[in-house]
Design brief:
This protein has one domain: 3-Layer(aba) Sandwich (Aminopeptidase). It has 4 helices and 7 strands, in the order βααβββαβαββ. β3 and β4 form a beta hairpin. It has 162 residues and is of the alpha+beta class.
Length: 162
């Protein structure tokens, strides 16, 4: 059974293990593959409004952060970043975290959620976000330098809350 809860400082080692693997692959996030643990801590744990973990049998299987997408007059729209451990991908954890993040965003009184940079070749994520109610509202041509495929498009995906 997966439990999603707010992350604690003591969770960061397991979060780092997941994120380091994801970032090193160079196929879904724009961060340099050799990003440092300290940089990731700031990005994933300090800057966001909240960070969450998906836990199964005391092991962190996934994580996401929630933050305003823009300051001031754009702060009613939130931004979220997700990562799932490679050994449990395809088991519904991404969907659970997405559904949880939508509920949390509404609880924080956000009016919409925006994904700024969904790599077009990450078809599993693109299809999942569509199933969760997101629409592609923009395409950034050749905006992502995929580690294996070279320059590929990135999508901006958006969901307004009714």
């Amino acid at each position: 059974m997966i439990e999603i809860r707010k992350a604690q400082g003591s969770d960061f080692q397991q979060i780092w293990t997941i994120l380091q693997e994801v970032f090193q692959k160079g196929d879904t996030y724009a961060f340099f593959p050799n990003i440092t643990k300290e940089e990731v801590f700031q990005i994933w744990m300090e800057i966001p409004l909240a960070t969450y973990v998906a836990v199964e049998n005391e092991l962190i299987r996934g994580t996401y952060y929630l933050k305003p997408n823009q300051p001031g007059l754009g702060s009613h729209v939130c931004n979220v970043g997700y990562a799932v451990s490679s050994n449990v991908r395809g088991k519904g954890i991404g969907r659970l975290m997405c559904e949880h993040s939508l509920n949390e965003a509404k609880a924080y009184a956000f009016k919409a959620m925006q994904y700024n940079y969904v790599v077009s070749t990450n078809q599993a994520a693109v299809e999942l976000w569509k199933k969760c109610g997101f629409k592609i509202v923009g395409t950034l041509p050749k905006a992502f330098n995929h580690k294996e495929k070279g320059l590929v498009d990135a999508f901006v995906m958006y969901q307004w809350f009714n």
